[in-house]
Specification:
With 102 residues, the protein is of the alpha+beta class. Helix content is 28%, strand content 31%. The protein has 3 helices and 5 strands, in the order ββββααβα. The strands form 2 sheets. It has a 3-stranded mixed β-sheet with strand order 3-4-5, with helices on one face. Strand 3 and strand 4 form a beta hairpin. The radius of gyration is 15 Å and the shape is globular. It starts with a strand and ends with a helix.
């Protein structure tokens, strides 16, 4: 699924300042269904739809659909995406990698 790591300032188990990591699932606007999440059956299908620079995580459809459904978000499996500009460009991915390393 299209997703990427993030982190926030927090406190570690030792009580000292630390970065707390989490994963952000990307959501998309759909003309008929409102806000949707995409899930793909392979990394190749994800890259074909969203571009080679799209960050992603592997996960199970059931938990994703349950979590998104509770938020009023529909999950589309292997959606067709209109051709055009990719969601992420290589330079976006490089900037994210630098941010995550901090």
């Amino acid at each position: 699924m299209p997703a990427h790591p993030r982190s926030v300032a927090g406190t570690g188990t030792d009580g000292r300042p630390a970065r707390v990591p989490f994963i952000v699932v990307e959501l998309f606007a759909h003309p008929a269904r409102g806000t949707v999440a995409f899930a793909f059956t392979s990394p190749a299908k994800l890259a074909a739809a969203l571009g080679d620079a799209q960050p992603w995580v592997a996960g199970s459809l059931g938990p994703l659909a349950e979590e998104m459904g509770g938020r009023g978000v529909t999950v589309l499996l292997d959606p067709r995406v209109a051709p055009g500009e990719s969601n992420w460009r290589p330079e976006d991915l490089a900037a994210l990698a630098q941010e995550v390393r901090r």
